[in-house]
Amino acid sequence: MYIIENANILKGERLTSCSILVTEDRITTVQGSLPHYRLMKMDVEPFFMTPTFVLLNSTIPSIRSFPDMKKCLIEQFLLKGCTTLFTYANVLYENELEEKINEVKTSLISCPIDFIIGVKIPARLITPNFIRNCKKNKLPAIFVELTNQDELEKIPWGWIREASFSFQLPTFSNNFSSTKEGTKGSSVEMERYHVKRKNTCTLRGN
After folding, report:
1. How do beta strands 142-145 and 171-173 pair?
2. What are phi and psi of 165, to 5 degrees?
3. pLDDT (tens digit, 9 = 90+) per residue, 22-56?
4. Nearest to 127 by CA among 169, 168, 160
5. Alpha-carbon gap, residue 59 to 96, rounded angstroms
């Protein structure tokens, strides 16, 4: 545990100064000051803290050459001010979830910026058991491949809600039609399911 003191945090157009308690690499307390803690303190008054910039890129794990990976990360991320890469593992079967995630982690072992890994799955994998496995692995998001609206009807939303209880797991989808009408239809249909079922997953079109 340690304390970050005199942190100048920029939120929108407002600059505030506060102290931050860090426990096991997680921010647990943010207050104006923390005078009662006898912990190691780090004074960051000369600096400004701003929100990180996160970019989504699904092609990074497929880059095998380290020089190509380094060039891509510098040109597409670092030079654009990005400090966190968001990517995903392609999962076709439930029993390969952890294997595919570990493959992506291995490919990013020398990544100079922070990264978070979600999963991309076909709609048939949206089951209570799979959601529980995602919850167990603390995945940040699920990307779902939809081919038609009927797939939404087959998803057991009530059970999905129970399986994801106490864990927010955002879920995004592709549009299953490239036409303007299909795009609008998919977005409306998925939003209807989100509101009607009141589940913790959020399905939205691109």
Report:
1. parallel
2. -55, 135
3. 998 888 999 988 888 889 999 999 998 887 788 88
4. 160
5. 20
Assigned token pair, 70: 């380094």
Burial of 138 (0-12, 13-18, 19+ CB in 10 A): exposed
Residues 6+ apart with CB under 8 A from 187: 175, 204, 205
CA distances from 67 to 4, 61, 70, 119, 150 (A): 36, 14, 5, 26, 44
Strand 2-11 to strand 14-23: parallel, antiparallel, or no bridges (unpaired)? antiparallel
> Ramachandran region of residue 18, left (φ > 0), alpha (ψ -120 to 50) or beta?
beta
Separation of alpha carbons 89 and 106, rounded Å? 12
1-5, 46-50, 63-67, 185-189 — most confident range = 1-5
